[in-house]
Amino acid sequence: GTKRGRTPCDLQAQALTPPGQRHGHTAVGWWTPDGRGAPEFGEDALTRAVQHVAAPVPLVEVDGQLGVAHGGTATLGACGVAARGAQRLVGYAPVLRPEQLGDPAFLASHGLTYPYVAGAMANGVGSEEIVEAMARAGMVGFFGAAGLSQGRIELAIERIQRNVGDRPYGFNLIHTPTEPRSEAEVVELYLRRNVRLVSASAYIELTLPLIRYRVAGIFRDTDGTVITPNKVIAKVSRVEVARKFFSPPPAQMLTTLVDGGFITQRQAALAAEIPVAEDLTAEADSGGHTDNQPAISLVPTMLAVADEMQTRHGYRTPLRLGAAGGISTPESTAAAFAMGAAYVLTGTINQACVEAGTSQAVREMLARSSQADVTMAPAADMFEMGVQVQVLKWGTMFAVRARNLYRLYRAHVSLDEIPAASRLILERDYFRSTLAEAWAKTRDYFAARDPEQVTRAETDPKHQMALVFRSYLGQASRWANSGEASRKGDYQIWCGPAMGAFNEWARGSCLESPERRDVVTLGMNLLVGAAALARVGWLRAQGVPLPRAARRFEPRDRAELAALLACE
């Protein structure tokens, strides 16, 4: 090898190193004490310092021991002249509060303190209580409107608007390709009640109701900025869908809205300058609708798409990407932000919280589940298309029964064609009625919700069969939410592997019991923990060996979290 001559920096680093410690940690600067206390040594001191995210961490080496300095002045850079009495600074991590994670533009756009979103779990599992708790904490939650009636959604709007005031909140807007009328009616309701933020989920294609919502009331202000009163946060897992949301609204749809009198020609021209969604959540392996993609590959891919579309369209407001799917521990949260996420979104873990719009039985089942206790099953809303959702398989027969229904649907053209043996099982175990009675109840439901479905089913026996089978899938989630004890074996509980990861992390802590889990405490643990682990990463990159306790953030209660956020 080639020997390198010693540089002034080498000599300075050596000068900072006490005799006998020339082979210790590499100096990153020096620390000059001010008499406010000697450094603290030991694993406990290091752990406390790293996890107190509201205070900087200057680490010094004294007589071969790693210590946390207090007070004094830290000078970064080994070059220069050390002050008299200065000690080697071998590691330094600045303050990193949870509100500093993610993208500040996302916080400003939505009026948030923290880059944290509670996702819209359908059938009201993402409850009013969750939305209100998130709003009070400086986060944002989405009400799970999917699968609910117009009247039920409007009641939720009235309550949330009354209770949160001008704090941020949102509602779900789910793509319903088999029931387009329902989607249009939900948009009409949101526009009438001034719901300004929606989570657009399960979209395969952009729809006219979605675009109508996005561009309603669009105008240009005196600074020339195009203002859209209504914001969309899309949730997708496929690149081709992401490109559609990151593009301006389709010209043909804008023309249709102009022709229908919903917007003016001038507003249509303005819409060409904005994306359908400025914010898009990359949804990795998750509960409910999912493509089971790993976040570690999906998030970087989607970030590249965001950069591509920003370059192509030159939006005044840069596109932003959030991360969802598997966000359930400080490690996964820190990883999402390290990859460049503007915010994180949680879903599965919120179902096990006291505010979730589900039953205590479901909370307990979720709290006992592991990462392997999930599986895929046919989705109620896109049954005929073969779309699947991820559900809990532990303690319930739903997934097995749902797959059997889809097998029968694929194999037969009508309910009458189903073999007697299979019919007996369906009537005894699934519907607990004859198939004729099951169709009568299904017909009454759709007659009120979407009469066109009934009209089609009366002339299309296969569609009739699909509606009846979908009725079981839909009721299975409602039985779970209400805690119908006689139907526990049929519970449909949307769940991803994040739940098992959370349970493993929470075991033996204040968050182990579902009765002690609330959405804000969970969210703050993930954020504060992510900030602490980011500082661990910085110190490790400086060559500082940290004890295991400092590299693992244990769950805390609200008071303990507040102490970690308190300034010295």
Low-confidence stretches: 1-23
Distance between the termini: 49 Å
The coarse overall form would be globular
Report the biggest beta sheet as strand number plus sense, adding barrel if it closes.
8 strands, parallel, barrel
Percentage of residues assigned to helices: 40-55%
Instruction: Please work out how many helical segments DSSP would assign.
Output: 21
Q: Gyration radius, to the nearest Å?
A: 28 Å
Helix/strand structural class: alpha/beta
Explain this structure.
There is one protein chain. The chain has 568 residues and is of the alpha/beta class. Helices cover 42% and strands 14% of the residues. α6 runs parallel beside α7. It starts with 7 loop residues before the first helix and ends with a helix. The N terminus is likely disordered.
Tell me the layout of helices and strands.
Blueprint: H1 8-16, E1 29-32, E2 40-41, H2 43-51, E3 57-62, E4 65-68, E5 73-76, E6 87-93, H3 104-110, E7 116-118, H4 128-136, E8 140-143, H5 150-164, E9 170-174, H6 180-192, E10 197-201, H7 208-215, E11 219-220, E12 226-227, E13 231-236, H8 239-245, H9 251-259, H10 265-271, E14 279-283, E15 288-289, H11 295-313, E16 320-324, H12 330-338, E17 344-346, H13 360-367, E18 374-378, E19 388-392, H14 398-411, H15 420-430, H16 435-449, H17 451-457, H18 461-482, H19 498-506, H20 519-541, H21 558-565
Helix pairs in contact: 4-5, 6-7, 12-20, 14-18, 16-17, 16-18, 17-18, 20-21
Write out key terms for the chains shown.
568 residues, alpha/beta
Short description:
With about 575 residues, this protein is of the alpha/beta class. About 40% of the residues lie in helices and about 15% in strands.
